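Consider the tokenized backbone below.
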């Protein structure tokens, strides 16, 4: 079924700047080790926009973060929406394109095979800078500029429409967070893809709408992260995930001085947060949000278990989750997270997710806590506990687990878990694997977990 989306219809709809920079010399990005200023960036955006086809939307497949920035703004400037699949795998791209008849795909690489209607970005370096007295472009606040898809960690990916006005509103909270932690000017290196909503917020919107410069790369290995940080001036902020953070800490590699680190996409273990702060000598900030809501809260897990809401955000606990209100939302959004409020509702503590809560024989547990206890076992490098789809004769769904634990066997892990949890919640089966099927942001799509468990059941 095709997804229907449209802009808001209002009298004289307000317009908001595409790039919040009154100074044409303001550095927006660092590309191939060189700074790119606002005048040069906007000239390249307008040149790309002029060559785009008439269409409702375009799939932004750019791998290079600077190319993504240019393509994102060019698509938006044409009045179109950026389609952001949860994965750039051909099947995921095809499914998104099928839901948006008439769309095209855009990227900086020569793809073979390529999606239908694929267009390659022209060379950007040959575009002359924008004239200093040229009008700076703006976009209607109600225009849908992006459609992000959830990761599929709890089921099939879902589409979420984002207007330019909502992005301006959500960016204000993240910008205030970084200014309070670091100062007015920030240089960002991110290990997350810009297509993911966390990557969009922290490495696309911030350089567009704040005094922020972003490194064009997406470093993966610890040595690559160190090299990317060395290519931007201080103060540096590393935007990353718990998976990448653990790899950095355990690698022993030295990083150029960082002013702060930011983490999201999965719960950050307190011990890892403390090790990272000690190892790299900078505060580690964790942000909380979703593709549906964008970020609306933050904390420093090394020193505080509770989350602080951004200005204008509020939470309303429900029996099966929490309603979120925030400046970027036209209507409250329901999340499955269970919270307890404090400080007059301005702070909260996570108590699990409704879908993660288990009840067997009158006893309760949560998948999140079971996974945390699995990861706490010495020798377990990675792992996940999840519930299977099929129930037994009484309707009870079995609990399963996958673990990466070289040197351990399943019996040893189960013995350690038996000392930490009620035997009713021991995962059976528990399978040892070489690696978990994490996506680019470290999340674990449920379908991939079930498929990997099935492969080992066949062994």
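A designed sequence for it:
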């Amino acid at each position: 079924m095709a997804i229907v989306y449209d802009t808001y219809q209002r009298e004289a709809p307000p317009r908001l700047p595409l790039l919040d920079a009154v100074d044409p010399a303001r550095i927006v990005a660092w590309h191939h080790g060189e700074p790119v200023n606002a005048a040069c960036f906007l000239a390249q955006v307008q040149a790309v926009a002029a060559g785009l086809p008439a269409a409702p939307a375009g799939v932004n497949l750019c791998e290079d973060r600077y190319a993504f920035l240019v393509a994102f703004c060019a698509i938006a400037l044409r009045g179109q929406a950026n389609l952001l699949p949860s994965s750039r795998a051909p099947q995921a791209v095809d499914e998104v394109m099928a839901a948006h008849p008439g769309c095209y795909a855009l990227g900086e690489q020569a793809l073979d095979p390529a999606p239908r209607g694929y267009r390659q970005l022209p060379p950007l370096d040959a575009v002359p800078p924008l004239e200093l007295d040229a009008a700076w472009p703006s976009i209607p606040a109600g225009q849908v500029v992006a459609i992000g898809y959830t990761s599929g960690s709890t089921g099939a990916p879902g589409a979420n429409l984002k207007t330019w006005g909502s992005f301006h509103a959500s960016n204000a909270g993240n910008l205030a967070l970084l200014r309070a932690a670091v100062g007015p000017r920030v240089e960002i290196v991110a290990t997350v893809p810009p297509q993911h909503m966390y990557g969009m917020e922290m490495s696309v919107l911030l350089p567009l709408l704040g005094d922020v410069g972003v490194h064009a790369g997406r470093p993966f290995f610890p040595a690559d992260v160190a090299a990317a940080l060395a290519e931007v001036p201080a103060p540096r902020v590393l935007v990353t995930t718990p998976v990448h953070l653990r790899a950095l800490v355990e690698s022993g590699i030295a990083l150029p001085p960082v002013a702060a680190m930011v983490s999201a996409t999965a719960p950050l273990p307190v011990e890892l947060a403390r090790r990272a702060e000690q190892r790299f000598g900078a505060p580690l900030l964790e942000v909380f949000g979703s593709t549906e809501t964008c970020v609306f809260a933050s904390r420093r897990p090394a020193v505080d278990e509770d989350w602080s809401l951004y200005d204008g955000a509020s939470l309303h606990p429900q029996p099966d989750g929490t309603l979120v209100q925030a400046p970027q939302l036209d209507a409250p959004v329901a999340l499955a997270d269970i919270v307890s409020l404090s400080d007059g509702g301005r702070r909260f503590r996570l108590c699990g997710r409704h879908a993660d809560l288990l009840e067997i024989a009158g006893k309760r547990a949560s998948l999140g806590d079971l996974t945390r206890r699995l990861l706490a076992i010495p020798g377990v490098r990675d792992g996940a506990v999840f519930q299977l789809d099929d129930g037994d004769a009484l309707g009870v769904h079995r609990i399963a687990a996958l673990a990466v634990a070289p040197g351990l066997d399943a019996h040893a892990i189960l013995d350690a878990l038996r000392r930490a949890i009620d035997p009713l919640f021991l995962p059976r089966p528990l399978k040892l694997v070489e690696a978990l099927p994490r996506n680019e942001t470290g999340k674990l799509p449920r379908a991939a977990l079930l498929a990997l468990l099935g492969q080992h059941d066949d062994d």
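The chain has a mean pLDDT of 89.
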